[in-house]
Amino acid sequence: MKIEKIHHVAYRCKDAKETVEWYRDMLNMDFILAIAEDHVPSTHEPDPYMHIFLDAGDGNVLAFFELPTKPEMGRDPNTPIWVQHIAFKVKDRDALIEYKEHLEAKGVEVLGVTDHSIFHSIYFFDPNGHRIELACPDPEEDAMLEKLNDVKWEMLEEWSRTKKAPKHADWMHKKELSGV
């Protein structure tokens, strides 16, 4: 028994049409499917919804629900805004910079480029308040991933015991955090 891949991930949106148009215009995602019904299939609950699906590339699907009868969307006030996010991979740094410039030209506030060593990222919010990350691989990604793979279990065990950040991978953000 083994999971094959993520079929889709689903989030809530404020306005389905606005969300489709934003992801099309800002991230060049195709609108691939819409389902709207008056009853929730899994629970049989009477509750109208619009369920939209977007092509996030390479067989990945990003979905949203608009729920007009439910209270306004919120977020967990105990979780920092930077924690919950959707990250999409782009080809390389040139593509990342092109997206950054495109988004900023459309009035989207963009944070970064942030250097995570193994990859580089920009961050921004969609019209629903979901944090989005675009990430491109570093040219030395494979070697760094191998280095991280060698210490992942030690790091997890140490974290589990101490709840303090192990120093096995402190090299990753040294350059970013030092401002060099």
From TrEMBL:
Do you know which CDD domains this protein is assigned to?
VOC
Q: Which domain of life is it from?
A: Bacteria
- Which InterPro entries does the protein's record reference? Glyas_Bleomycin-R_OHBP_Dase (IPR029068), Glyas_Fos-R_dOase_dom (IPR004360), GlyoxalaseI/FosfomycinResist (IPR050383), VOC_core (IPR037523)
Q: Where is the VOC domain?
A: 5-137
The protein's name is: VOC family protein
UniProt source species: Thalassovita aquimarina
